Amino acid sequence: FNLFPHKSVMENLIEAPIRVLKEKPEEARKKAMDILNFLELGDKAQNYPYELSGGQKQRVAIGRALALKPKLMCFDEPTSALDPALTGEVTKLIKSLSGEGMAMLIITHDMEFAKMVADRIVSMDKGIILEEHIYDRAQA
After folding, report:
1. Which of 39, 27, 101 is nearest to 64 (CA)?
2. For position 8, what pLDDT does the model report?
3. What is the arithmetic mean of pLDDT over 104-108?
4. Is 45 a residue whose pLDDT tops 90?
5. What domain range is 123 assigned to?
6. No. of H helices and E strands in the chain?
7. Phi (first) and psi of residue 97, to 5 degrees
8. What's the confidence (pLDDT) of residue 139?
9. In sequence order, which residues have a C-beta less than 8 Å from that of residue 76 and are 6 or more positions away?
10. Which of 11-20, 48-57, 76-85 holds the top average pLDDT?
11. Which of 51, 69, 87 is the last residue of a domain?
């Protein structure tokens, strides 16, 4: 998850906005708290990574990326090495982000997961597109 182990969850989320986006610390903290509440981690703001479950660490890592206000979120195997319960947490989060209008690119070998969260699936092998499926989630 590449969280800073010596920093709290809050500190992990505000580091980049302050350093990269030059946000004021108070503003970064407020936005980080909004993100943590969205991720259902508001009560973990002062915890350290070693105090979190795998699913919570994954959500903090996603929150850290969200703090930079990306136009597109890229996920590389977001459910790899997660048990079914944690996979369910990540699935719920990605669906929630999609509902908020976040554009996402998800690389996964887990086709069942892909079918649950994607509105478009492109299957590739060695850089060659093998097939493409578009799903109308409005009718799902």
Report:
1. 39
2. 98
3. 95
4. yes
5. 71-140
6. 5, 4
7. -60, -40
8. 54
9. 107
10. 11-20
11. 69
